[in-house]
Amino acid sequence: MELNNPETLRQVEACSDLYERALAENDVQVLDDLFWNGPEVVRYGVGENLYGAEEIAAFRRSRKGGSPPRRNLRRTITAIGNESAVVSLEFQREGSDRIGRQMQTWIRTDNGWKILAAHVSLMAARPETERPAL
């Protein structure tokens, strides 16, 4: 297995850039097209757990105004062979000092690169080392 094939990294970076533009513009059709269209896809959001393409699409259409505007702070892409990759992104929403995290697992399909799993979260106000564990 090869990690970080340059061509695979370039392709996934372009898809990640497209996703970020579509998110900023609330282009739900492009966002839908970038996700795997099947029951296997999962998206864990800040306030929701979504299973399957239909739930994810319904969420996007019901969210008024789309995703809150944000500034991306750091992105890491790790290609796993030529068929999959993980995109890890740190962001900060406008008007907030909290750091958000987004991870996406991308897979190469006959219809291009698709997101198979995604997770979005906001960091706690203090690290767990500074507060008792729950």
Instruction: State the domain count.
Output: 1
Number of DSSP helices?
Answer: 3
Regarding quaternary structure, how should these chains be classified?
A: single chain
Structural class: alpha+beta
The CATH architecture can be named as Roll
Q: Strand percentage, roughly? A: 35-45%
CATH topology heading: Nuclear Transport Factor 2, Chain: A
Give the SSE layout.
Elements lengths: L5 H20 L2 H7 L7 E3 L4 E3 L1 H10 L7 E11 L3 E10 L6 E10 L2 E11 L12
Parallel strand pairs: 1-6
Antiparallel strand pairs: 1-2, 3-4, 4-5, 5-6
Helix pairs in contact: 1-2
Describe the model:
The chain is α+β, with helices and mostly antiparallel strands and 134 residues long. It has a single domain, classed as Nuclear Transport Factor 2, Chain: A. The chain is built from three helices and six strands. The chain has helices spanning 6-25, 28-34, 53-62, and strands spanning 42-44, 49-51, 70-80, 84-93, 100-109, 112-122. It has a six-stranded mixed beta sheet with strand order 2-1-6-5-4-3, covered by helices on one side. A hairpin with a 2-residue loop joins strand 5 and strand 6. The longest helix is centred in the N-terminal third of the chain and has 20 residues, at 6-25. The radius of gyration is 15 Å and the shape is globular. The chain starts with 5 loop residues before the first helix and ends in a 12-residue tail after the last strand. The relative contact order is 0.19.
